[in-house]
Amino acid sequence: MQAFIIRNILQRLLLIFIVSILAHSVIHLAPGEPSEVDPSNPRMKPEDIARIRAAFHLDDPLYLQYAYWIRDLATGELKSFKDSQPVLQKIWRRFLNSLPLYLCTTLLVWTLAFPTGIHAAVKRGAVYDRSSTFIAYTLISVPGFFLSYLVILWIVNLFGVPVIGMKTFGMDHAQPAYKMMDHVWHLVIPSLMSALAGLAILSRYVRSQMLEVLGQDYVRTARAKGVQEDGVIYQHALRNALLPFVTMFGFLLPGLIGGSVIFEQIFAWPGLGRLGYEAILARDFPVILTLNFIAAILTLAGTLLSDILYAVVDPRIRLQ
Amino acid sequence: MGASGQPLLDVSHLSTSFFTDKGEIRAVQDVSLAIHHGQTLALVGESGCGKSVTALSIMRLVDPPGRIVNGQISFKGQDLLGLSEKALRDIRGKAIGMVFQEPMTSLNPVFTIGKQIGEVLQIHTTLSAQEIRQEVLHILEKVRIPSPEQRIDQYPHELSGGMKQRVMIAMALVCQPDLLIADEPTTALDVTIQAQILELLKDLQAEMGLAILLITHNLGVVAQFAQEVIVMYASQIAERAGVEQLFKNPAHPYTRALLMSLPHPGGRGKMLASIPGTVPSPLYYPHGCHFSTRCQEVLDFCSEKEPPLIQITEEHEAACWLHAPNPRI
Amino acid sequence: MVNKPTTHTIALMQDDPSSALPPQETPWQEFLRFFTKDTLALLGTIVLAVLLVMAIGGKVLTEWWVVFDPEVVRLPDKFLPPFSRPSVDILPPHDLPALGLYLLGTDELGRDVFARMLQGSFVSLSIGFIAVSISVVVGVILGGLSGFYGSLKLGFITVDTLIMRFTDVMLCFPTFFLILTVVALLPPSIYNIMVVIGLTSWMGTARFVRAEFLALREQDYVVAAQALGVPNQRIIFRHMVPNAIAPVSVSATIGVATAILTESALSFLGFGVQPPYATWGNILADGKGFIFDAPWLFFIPGMAILIVVLAFNLVGEGLREALNPKLRGR
After folding, report:
1. pTM, rounded to two decimals
2. Among the listed ranges A251-265, C36-50, C288-302, which one has the minimum average pLDDT value?
3. Among A285, B111, B224, C152, which has the highest number of CB atoms less than 10 A from its own CB?
4. Measured distance CA(B202)–CA(B204) in Å, rounded
5. Cβ-based contacts of C165 with chain A (< 8 Å)
């Protein structure tokens, strides 16, 4: 087992190295200079531009820029082009904002997907199955922001649920209990909307896994032993159907950055996705680059976690 | 046969069909059989003749789109087809045990074999966990698994095919049922292991007074093991006889052809006989007698009217016009 | 006693129709039979057929033989709801809409939404198709090379390892974020968007194709063909590719749906296709500013995207079930 883990980690470290080089090259090779951030700004004289370029090593050859980037990243000295704030700090702050939204979304997706998927599989072909299938396809097909805006139109008028930002203006001075409640209230709609597509996809996958397992011989054996139908489904079948989902836990990590750009924009949520978007608008290379790099690291860490979890959970692999 | 009294299991006119988008597949048509306490009845036939579906129907384990469309199944006087699910579950695993053909896939890969066998006891008895473990060790010994103390906590993939099948048998017998349904228990195993498993079943039967419904396509196994034999062809019963009668005086041309196709001493150097043609598809059974298209002794109206089971001697029946008192032409 | 077969018996055996096997059907017929059973997939196919007609007809009718002009600006007639009549008295006759009314209303510049949607359908669809084509070509080539020549060594590393590691690297990045990054940094152009989407979504196809080739390579008929001296290219193209087509076509169909959604998301963020091209994505993005004043400007493109993407997804799933016997009845 240990050898398995170590081998996996080493492979991933190599990949991280390659990824960092690739990401760095792609971004720096793209046309568009950071000094073009504000071309209409009359105050940006050629000397200023030259100064910015020198400060950020932009005239050096590519591999030197790469070296500078890695050095600055490692020492925490990496600064944003836009406002010269340390990049890692910016990312950390926004991460803390994104985290509750992400946790909420993930919780919603995973707790709702399993019951719906299992139920659809067990009652295959019945009304529930067919209607939930259709709803799932619709949710996958609808543009995220389209549905969100429709919901915003409705809900805001009907219920007064907040849909902008993380907290109500002026709440900073309220008591902690009220602040908490306010936070939670602000989380509801954004996390619900972010969860819909993932919920649809995951519940379909749960359904197809359950169907495959329910067709196995050992399910028939369980029935022949006199096990109750509930036991057949939830113990004998589900336990086997869950195996691949354990690996999906690993993929939760990278999701933190990816899907959130759109929803954070819609709901004005000051999170990581929004940070990425603003950085792209401002051509803030260090931030863009670091975000992409962190995303890649999270993915690799996530898949490592998945591989390990799978080995732990499936007795067939464990004993290899 | 030779056993008297109420049969343990009495199946009459059982018909099971599968309703697919290609039409109704009649997997079992009008099958009747009876097994008495302690007796072994063998159900023989080629792949696809309906013998497995018959067994599954008895336990009501046929999955949709399959359905029992007709018949009565009576076990120890109880009508199985009319029982509630709960009552049926009480019987499954406790009064009737079943062993399936594929030991490789019939055991749940994520539970230890101790847990899987113990589960049967958990459901049907009120024994404590300790007592269950003892019972499981006991039955593992009985099915001749070496080192049961170690094996009990192992997972199915750590066992060989033969041992897995022993575990299946253990699961089926741990509650001391009256009837064991064994669906081709040795087909997927090596020949040497086959013999061992059959020996085991024989000994267990003698020890526990088990009745066995043995499903197989291997006539050799039948000869060693069964008292009564039913031969099925294309969803119907072709012949029913005591085992000696069947081998000495096969009445149905299908049975005769089967026996002829077995290699036999003295046949060296001669070509193996085989039955011409192939088994008909269940969607397109021939009109009249299902075997009429391949039969060497076919008569003119065999393909017009299905023959009923005709009594030949007291314990010997065959569904063949050849044995009708006045075959009309 | 076994009698010799009579002539009668032989006659029976030879031409008895009732003992025949079920009628043979070609794989194509079998596929059609399953596919047509799936009502949702059929509906999807109809929608797609309509879309195709609309897209091609749209391109023709809005750009070549202009019947519906999407570019005419009619300020007096802005923000008109669907089915409104144009202001005949104010507008010059050549600016009037073709059918005598604004079928889907007008936007903030008085442009005919119906005409814009028609024009946009072609662009949206072509973005989807070209992006997917790129990803399929890249995926099939890489996957095929990896599957077939995988054990060839280039220096110290095998072809298979090289390609698979590269695939892993590409898979490291969250797709949308990567697309956004690249599209935002490149000059805005419709071709860039197509290419970027295509170059970031080939990984799934490559994996499928590689898996199929690995499985097929071990098949006896491939070894037999090689023993007969059949050149490798012929084996690949005549025998293996047709088998790999099934998962690839499923993946491609769903890929078009994803590409259309991605394009609309990019437009929402401001990095999509720029004017003068109209796509459903940018019509939708423009419309979001007028939700309260002119909801149809938002609703119509949104619903259109939903229906089309749904159709692609349903057809894709239908294909998957019909093409793969193991998955049938799920």
Report:
1. 0.81
2. A251-265
3. A285
4. 5
5. 15, 18
Beta bridge partners of B73: B11
C-alpha–C-alpha distance, residues C69 and C56, integer Å: 15
| B281: nearest CB among C2, C21, C37 | C21
Nearest Cα neighbor of A195 from A132, A111, A135, A96 is A111
How confident is the model over A88-136, as pLDDT tens digits? 888 888 888 888 888 889 899 999 999 999 999 888 878 888 888 889 9
**Alpha-carbon distance C205 to C143, whole Å?**
7
- Within an 8 Å CB–CB cutoff, is residue C328 touching chain B? no
Tokens of B6: 């109420």
- Residues written for chain A: 320
Residue pair B197/B185 in contact by the 8 Å Cβ criterion: yes
Q: How many Å from the N-terminal Cα to the C-terminal Cα in chain B?
A: 34
> What ipTM did this prediction achieve?
0.84
d(CA B194, CA C13): 37
- Which of chain A's residues have a Cβ under 8 Å away from the Cβ of C257? 141
Q: How far apart are CA C321 and CA B86, in angstroms?
A: 36
> What residues of chain A lie within 8 A of the CB of C317, using their CB?
137
Residue C243 in 3-state DSSP? helix
Q: How far apart are CA B116 and CA B235, in angstroms?
A: 34
Sort strands B316-318 and C157-158 into parallel, antiparallel or unpaired: unpaired
CA max distance for chain A: 85
State the pLDDT confidence band at A52, using cuts at 50, 70 and 90: low
Question: Sign (positive/negative) of CA torsion A266, A271, A272, A278?
Answer: positive
Decide if B21 touches A, using CB distance below 8 A.
no
Contacts by C223-232, CB closer than 8 A, 24 or more apart:
C232/C148
Question: Do the chains contact at C310 and A283, CB–CB below 8 Å?
Answer: no
R_g of chain B, CA atoms, integer Å: 21
Give the residue from chain A lying closest to C256, CA to CA. A141
**Closest by Cβ to B90, choosing from A226, A240, A319:** A226
List the structure tokens of B263: 């290699």
Q: How far apart are the first and last CA of chain C?
A: 51
Measure CA B248 to chain center.
Answer: 22
Taking the C-alpha atoms of residue B236 and residue B219, their distance in angstroms, rounded to an integer, is: 18
Residue B56 near residue B92, CB atoms below 8 Å: no
Q: How confident is the model at residue A70 (pLDDT cuts 50, 70, 90)?
A: confident
Interface test with C, best of A24, A149, A150, A196 (most C CBs within 10 A): A149
The reply to whether C225 touches chain A by the CB within 8 Å rule is no
pLDDT tens digits, one per residue of C4-17:
444 443 333 344 44
Give the integer Cα–Cα distance in Å for A183 and C122: 44
Instruction: Please report the number of interchain residue pairs, chain B to chain C, with beta-carbon separation below 8 angstroms.
Output: 47
Helices C39-59, C113-148: crossing angle, 10 deg rounding:
120
**Residues B199, B184: Cα–Cα separation, whole Å:** 15
- Give the residue among A121, A97, A302 at the shortest CA–CA distance from A207: A121
Which tokens is B260 given? 């002829």
Which residue among C174, C182, C261 sits closest to A295, beta carbon to beta carbon?
C174
**Reading across the β-sheet that carries B310-313, which strands appear in turn?**
B96-99, B179-183, B211-216, B40-44, B228-233, B236-242, B316-318, B310-313
Tokens of B87: 């009552």
Which band of pLDDT confidence, cut at 50, 70 and 90, is reported for residue A319?
low
pLDDT surpassing 90 at residue C268: no
